[in-house]
């Protein structure tokens, strides 16, 4: 494992713990060259998941793309980074549990929006506005009305 500070490949493990609901191992390491401490994660190697984009092109699934989109949509909102990690993990595991080798970007976006709606509605609208490519205010209002209807359903229950 390369040290992020000096690029040395000599480090020792200080601490190991389960992470990501025991699907990964978190390791604290210390570089034997410069003494810098850093964290690494070991994940189970999964078969590749291919995303079919709107234009028909295919690319390998990237959880970082989901997480980056969530971070942008939740800027200056009371949503913790761990919540965003949890959403990303739930989306990835749900897609993998379905067992398909290919999944549409539309399906991924829908899963993300369904989870995000229950975390922060403003962030949901931000994410949806980029994902659904709203062309005008009417489309935005339509989406917001859907949120209000969902909120009313939950308050009636």
Structure explained in plain terms:
The protein has helices at 63-73, 81-98, 105-117, 121-131, 137-156; strands at 11-19, 24-31, 37-43, 50-52, 58-60, 102-104. It is an alpha+beta fold. The radius of gyration is 19 Å and the shape is elongated.
Topology, element by element:
Elements: E1 11-19, E2 24-31, E3 37-43, E4 50-52, E5 58-60, H1 63-73, H2 81-98, E6 102-104, H3 105-117, H4 121-131, H5 137-156
Parallel strand pairs: 4-6
Antiparallel strand pairs: 1-2, 2-3, 4-5
Helix pairs in contact: 1-2, 1-4, 2-3, 3-4, 4-5
Family: Belongs to the NrdR family.
Keywords: ATP-binding, DNA-binding, Metal-binding, Nucleotide-binding, Repressor, Transcription, Transcription regulation, Zinc, Zinc-finger
Zinc finger (unnamed): 3-34
Q: What structural class is derived from the secondary structure elements? A: alpha+beta
Helix content: 40-55%
In percent terms, what proportion of residues is strand? Answer: 15-25%
Q: Biggest sheet: strands side by side, in what order? A: 1-2-3
Short description:
With 157 residues, the chain is an alpha+beta fold. The protein has helices at 63-73, 81-98, 105-117, 121-131, 137-156; strands at residues 11-19, 24-31, 37-43, 50-52, 58-60, 102-104.
Features of the shown structure:
elongated; 6 strands; 5 helices; 157 residues; alpha+beta; single chain
């Amino acid at each position: 494992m390369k040290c992020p500070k000096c690029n040395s490949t000599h480090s020792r493990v200080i601490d190991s713990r389960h992470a990501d609901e025991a699907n990964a191992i978190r390791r604290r390491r210390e570089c034997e060259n410069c003494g810098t401490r850093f964290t690494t994660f070991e994940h189970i190697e999964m078969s590749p998941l291919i995303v079919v984009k709107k234009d028909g092109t295919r690319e390998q699934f990237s959880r970082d793309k989901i997480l980056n989109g969530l971070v942008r949509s939740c800027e200056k909102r009371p949503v913790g980074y761990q919540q965003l990690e949890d959403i990303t993990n739930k989306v990835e595991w749900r897609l993998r549990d379905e067992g398909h080798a290919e999944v549409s970007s539309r399906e991924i976006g829908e899963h993300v929006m369904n989870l995000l709606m229950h975390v922060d509605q403003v962030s949901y609208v931000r994410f949806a506005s980029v994902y659904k490519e709203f062309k005008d205010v009417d489309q935005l209002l339509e989406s917001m009305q859907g949120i209000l209807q969902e909120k009313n359903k939950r308050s009636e229950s």
